[in-house]
Structure formats: structure tokens, C-alpha cells
Amino acid sequence: MAPFRNSRAAALPAKLSRSWLLASAADEANFGPALASEADSVIFDMEDAVPADGKAAARERVVEALSTGMTAWVRVNGIETDFWADDLAALSKAPGLRGVMLAMTEKPEQVTHTAMRLQAGTPVLALVESALGIENATAIASAPGTFRLAFGVGDFRRDTGASDDPMALAYARSKLVVASRVGQLPGPIDGPTVGTLGEKLLDACKVTASMGMTGKLCLMPEAADTINQGLSPSESEIVWAHELLEAHAAGAVVGDGSYLPRLARAQKISSLADSYGLWNA
């Protein structure tokens, strides 16, 4: 029997997903633990995680999983590869497909062409991994079919020679955040912090959140819970929001020009806390 998806995560809309776990399609044994983990969203990875001579077998593995009770996103190969068309043809009829992540997205039409080969309404995550993709981010975010943007940090660094210092990547992250806002998308998904858990991962999440990004990729199931914590409203923020909203409901008078922005922020924190089940955490 196919493993049950983590029920809390399964009920969370993907636009609010914080942790996005990549599960290698090189071995179907990776699928069950990923789906049972605390990851808000799970992506079966047929791209970076699978060598060229294993692509066809990985594709069959994923379609079989998505046809026998599993539900997940799938990272498909880039549009410039020999595998893209076959990936989409195979996935277009898979009942458990939640959406696809398009690797190496550099132009808006790549997203649209991908969406057109899938069932109507299938969301496409545009994974931006190059200098050209970053510069075209606003157009990509506004393309028909784009659901959310994601940052492929590793390939972007290889393309540009940038280090992993937050300052070196600040422009690219900001570009994705602004583009997402212009395209009226949910906040973008940051790249993974490879091989890092615990406090170091929490620190990386602070960088992600400070830039305005609202999700983060990860490669290990153990990272998901930390990312969820790091990209959720803090306890102090929740208390502040609760107090402000209570005072507002009791008839608090608008005191200055910053009141309405603060009220809007409190309402957003309240909504997120409710969605993430944090009020009684």
C-alpha cells in the first residue's frame, strides 16, 4: 500500500508551502519517507538527481508512484534537453501529479509551453538557475502557467561565479521577490542550504525570510521541520498580532499613519498562524 501523505502538510495550500523537499527519483524507496515527512510539499526529482542513462527508468518510477496513490510535485528536465517532452507526455495523465517544477527556466515562453503540455490548470514552478533567468524573472513571473518562482542557487553560482555569501546572492534573491510581487505570485522559494541542519539551517532561513522569500528547498527530510519553523511567524510576532487585533476589535482608535500598515501585518500574521496551526503550538 502506498504510504499516506503527512496529513497536516497535505491540507496546506501549495502557495503557503514553506519547505519543499526534493526526493530523488533514482530510487522509489525515497518517495515514502519524503511523503511522510514534515515537508509542506514534496518534489520527486527527475532532473539533477538522475543521470542521463537513468532518466527513462526514473520517469516510469514516478508515473507508477503517482498512479498508485501517491501525490507529489515533479521536477522535470529543462526545455532544452532531450527529456523534457517525454517527461511531460508521461506526467500529463498521472492522477497524483500536484504540479511540475521546470528546471533551468530562462524565458517566459518555456513555462507556458510546459503548462500547455499538461492537464489544464496544472501549476508550474519556474526554477530560475542562471543569470539570464534572473534578468528575465519579471517576465517569467507574469507568464501564463507560472505558479511560483524558485531559486536554483547552485547552478546560479556556477553560472556567475558568485559565492554563497548572502550579500553576493542578494541581488538575485531580491529580483525574484520583486518579480513575484509584480506577477502577483506567492513569495518565491529559496534554494537549499546543502548538508546543513539545526542552528545553521535556521540562520539560513533568517536570510531567506529577510529577503522576502517564503519557501525553501531542501534535500533531506530532517531539514523540513527546521525550515517550517524558520519561515513561520515567531511566537513574539503571533502574540503581538493577537494583541493588536484584539485591541482593534475592541474599538482601538487609529493613532498615526503607521496604524493601518501594522493592522494589515497583524492580519497577515494571524492568517498564517492559523494556516500553519501555530496558535496553540
Helix and strand element order: HEHEHEHEHEHHEHHEHEHHH
* β-strand amount: 5-15%
**Secondary structure category:** alpha/beta
General form:
globular
* Helix content estimate: 40-55%
Q: Order of strands across the widest beta sheet?
A: 6-5-4-3-2-1-8-7
Count every helix, treating DSSP H or I runs of 4 or more residues as helices. Answer: 13
Total number of strands: 8
Report the major sheet: 8 strands, parallel
Mean pLDDT over all positions: 92
Distance between the termini: 32 Å
Q: What is the radius of gyration? A: 19 Å
Low-confidence segments, given as residue ranges, are none
3D architecture notes:
InterPro entries: Aldolase/citrate-lyase_domain (IPR005000), Citrate_lyase_beta/mcl1/mcl2 (IPR011206), Pyrv/PenolPyrv_kinase-like_dom (IPR015813), Pyrv_kinase-like_dom_sf (IPR040442). It comes from Arthrobacter pullicola. It holds the Pfam family HpcH_HpaI. The chain is of the alpha/beta class. The protein is built from 13 helices and eight strands. An eight-stranded parallel β-sheet has the order 6-5-4-3-2-1-8-7. Strand 3, helix 4 and strand 4 form a beta-alpha-beta unit. The longest helix has 17 residues. The two termini are 32 Å apart. 44% of the residues are buried. The mean pLDDT is 92.
